[in-house]
Amino acid sequence: MNTYTFLLLLNFAGWAMLFCPAVIAGNSIQISQEHFNNLGITMGKLEPVKQIPVLTAPAKVVIPSAHEYIVSASQAGLITKLNASIGDNVKKGDVLAQLNSPDLLSMQRLYLKAVSDMQLGSLSYRRDKKLLEDGVIAERRWQETRSQYNAFVSEVNEHKQLLEIAGMTASEIDHLRRTRQLSGQLNVHAPISGTVIERMAVAGERIDILAPLYRIANLDELWLEINIPHERIGSIKVGDQVLVENTLVSAEITLLGQSVNPENQTLLARAKIKGHQTAVRAGQNINTEIIQASENAVFKVPNGAIAQNEGKSFIFIRNQDGFKVSPITVVGKQGEESIISGDFTGNEDIAIKGAVALKANWLGLGSAE
User: Fold this and answer.
1) Structural domains for the chain
2) pTM exceeds 0.70
3) In this predicted model, what pLDDT tens digit does every residue of 44-53 receive, in sequence order?
4) Measuring CA to CA, which residue among 180, 187, 185, 188 is closest to residue 109?
5) How far apart are CA 45 and CA 352, in angstroms?
């Protein structure tokens, strides 16, 4: 080796010591405190978590079918009054609308006629029963009288039930029986306590029998209908938790559909929202995240704490000489954070900022993300 070559090597070594203060040894980085401070590294802890995000999917907020009712007119007639508007909270039995119905008058007349026939039949029934006990009449006549009276009773019950189907309450029918005053006014009552979701008629409108007037729903319980891509069906199960984007609302999957929608190749998953809340509304389209309980130890770290190299992920764990480069598996992401697993105790100090600079030192000067 001549003098010129020796001087070149000595000069190169000097520059390397100046610009490469971190010593790299396999999966570890030896770094001085001064160089550590210059790199602007921020330390943090692994945050243990018990749940893993599995899938993000769109969903629609729906009302359970058993909690939704269409209130319809049980008789044809003219709407004279509507008492409820969209958004109103109503109680079971409240009068939602009033109608004038000529058909109701006919039904009331037939009911009162059946009541009169039954009352007359009752007199014959009691009379012949007494005559039979005294031995005045034959058994056959008593059987005929009793049969006729039972027919009158059945007819009264039939017309009473028809009035109930028409929309009259038991108290209204009892009032009709006592006063014998016919009235064509029909009150339409709320079948449940809930909220008026839709109004489908206006006052002054003449409607046919069974014409819809209102849609009422009990909003104390809501469901999410989630569209799961068919290729992810195997990763979702009943009992998984569902989080609604940008809210504190959570739900639990209670049903997985048995067929795939041929139009978009998705499977319907139903989730029940926990508790009564107002952060979401029926009919709303939202984004959801499905998460599962983890059987293995997993941890949450900022995305900036993770370095990528040759398709693999790593984090930098602080030790007495510098940093240990530890391989990890990213099992899920939640916004600006990732859920990872690896060979950890959970007490490690990791670099949550400055991972890019550490990666450059690990791979050699000039390396970058």
Assistant:
1) 17-50+295-363 (2.40.420.20), 55-65+220-293 (2.40.30.170), 66-217 (2.40.50.100)
2) no
3) 888 888 888 8
4) 180
5) 8
